[in-house]
Amino acid sequence: MNCPNCGNINNPGSQNCMYCGASFINNAPVNNQGNVMSADSFNSVPVQNFDQNVVNNGVMYQAPVEQVQYQTVEQNLSAAPVQNVNYNAQVVNAPVANASAEQLNKQPVQNLNFINYIINAIIKPADTFEKDENNLSDPKNSLLLALIVTGAMTIINLVVKMFSSIFVKRIDYATYEYKTAIDFSEILDLNYLELIFRDFFIYAGFVAFIALIFYIGSLIIKKPSNYLKMVSIAATAIIPYAIGSTFVVPLLTAIWASLGSIASILITVYTVTIFIALINKEIKIEKLDNRIYFNLVSISVLFYLGYFVLLKIIF
Fold first, then answer.
1. Global pTM?
2. Contacts 24+ apart (CB under 8 A), 63-72
3. Per-residue confidence (pLDDT) for residue 95, from 0 to 100
4. Partners of 248 in the beta sheet?
5. What's the CA gap between 113 and 115, in Å, rounded?
6. Residues 100-144: pLDDT tens digits?
7. Are 277 and 188 in the same domain?
8. Are 5 and 23 in contact, with CB atoms under 8 Å apart?
9. Domain limits at 299?
């Protein structure tokens, strides 16, 4: 038979060509001369109807006519659809069937930019908190935010006391009017360690105490929440108060005392409003009346216990 690769004649039944070494396919079709047909020569063969008689136990049956059509390997490969494979694509796990929408939408926790957060929280506290709400769920970010806010309030309060000790108001007995004098002697008499630690623990305890009251309230009404996240809410609400009471109120008071008092009231109301709005977002109470009663009781307990602690323990 002829080799389909080089065309040389080989002995019948050979497995490989003795000239080029090509292997013969056992089931490859052959022509009438018994030669193995190549792919090119076989493609030229038209489709034929094979009719043959089958003899079974001495009885002749007419076998059904079948159409036999062969396809080459090249035709099979060309017919197969080509798919583009992206080997750099990341593997994404399919969502669990029982996972909630909140879990599916949860973004990875990132480090919080505290400076930008504090600056933005003064004007847009709700938008700022909502933008970084997922990051504030992380205990590290929540604790660092509370420490930075309380530390900043401690430093600002210390600076204010230092300036107050330098600029002293004294009465002029010639005119019986108060005049501002500069005296650096009293600034050296300040107990800085006591001022720093006392103010820091007062501010930090105040933030933690506010969060604790509302956290306990959420447990009582069976709406458990994240305590550290509530600490970050309290710290966020105090940011405008710390900035306003330290810089805005003294400046307006110097211009007009009544204007400073009005500014102090507005800043306090603004702080309470921010805190209540963010707390209601964290502790989801469906009925509006129940939400009002919850806030009323929690704020009342907060003011009463806070007043008791400030008067009976600290002072």
1. 0.60
2. 70/29, 70/42, 72/39, 72/42, 72/43
3. 47
4. none
5. 6
6. 444 445 567 788 889 899 999 988 999 999 999 888 888 899 999
7. yes
8. no
9. 110-314
